[in-house]
Design a protein that fits this description.
This protein has ten helices and no strands. With about 220 residues, the chain is mostly helical. The longest helix is centred in the N-terminal third of the chain and has 35 residues. The protein has one domain: Glycerol uptake facilitator protein (Up-down Bundle). The chain is globular, with a radius of gyration of 17 Å.
Length: about 220
């Protein structure tokens, strides 16, 4: 019986990881699209395909799930952990593969973008990540709760375009940019941890409001 339970538990955790990897892949594809399009507004719009696919196919994206920690049991932490690891793996795969294609110019674009982030202060990164977390929760929760099909999609595009055009920090998208730029060191890891924390705080803050006043 114990062996069976462990087998079931392993499958559950593996599914969390796999769904996280696929979500990471889709967000990284969105990041590549953003780098490929000179017009920032159009690029931000196309980037939205990443989150749109995540929501439509039920993939696991950390920034889309962390806000729901308030209404889940303690073991939800494991789902978040495996989701985040999966997100990193997915973005890392796409980021490294793109460097072996003819789109080598995107690597330089990613390095320029990464340089701006790494030259920013910890506090600035944290605050910008909070704002991004707010936008991500609104986008995902809107998709889950709004019954009108058009409204579901509009919410995703507006929120994603807002956080990109404002320069808010999305931890998973930045995993993709760091991977494409092939810049990894202790400083990058520290900045990513700050982004993850900021995204978490922002998402939980807006989730607190939603759960208090609007949850059915």
């Amino acid at each position: 019986m114990l062996k069976l339970l462990r087998k079931i538990q392993f499958k559950v955790y593996f599914d969390y990881l796999l769904k996280g990897i696929y979500a990471g892949i889709m967000i990284a594809i969105g990041a590549v699209a953003y780098l490929a399009i000179p017009n920032k507004v159009v690029g931000a719009f196309i980037f939205s395909v990443g989150l749109l696919t995540v929501c439509m196919y039920g993939m696991n994206l950390y920034t889309g799930k962390i806000g729901y920690i308030l209404i889940n049991k303690l073991n939800y932490i494991w789902e978040l952990l495996f989701t985040l690891i999966g997100n990193f793996i997915g973005t890392f795969i796409v980021g490294n593969l793109i460097r072996y294609t003819r789109f080598f110019d995107y690597v330089e674009s990613a390095r320029n973008l990464v340089s701006i982030k790494l030259n920013d202060s910890y506090l600035s990164i944290f605050i910008l990540a909070i704002f991004c977390g707010i936008m991500m929760y609104i986008a995902v929760n809107n998709y889950k709760k709004v019954k009108d099909v058009l409204g579901k999609y509009i919410g995703i595009f507006i929120c994603v375009m807002t956080f990109i055009l404002c320069g808010f920090e999305h931890s998973v998208a930045n995993m993709a940019y760091f991977s494409i730029a092939n810049i990894w060191n202790l400083k990058v890891i520290l900045y990513l941890l700050i982004m993850v924390l900021g995204n978490s705080v922002g998402s939980i803050l807006i989730a607190l409001f939603y759960n208090r006043f609007y949850k059915n």
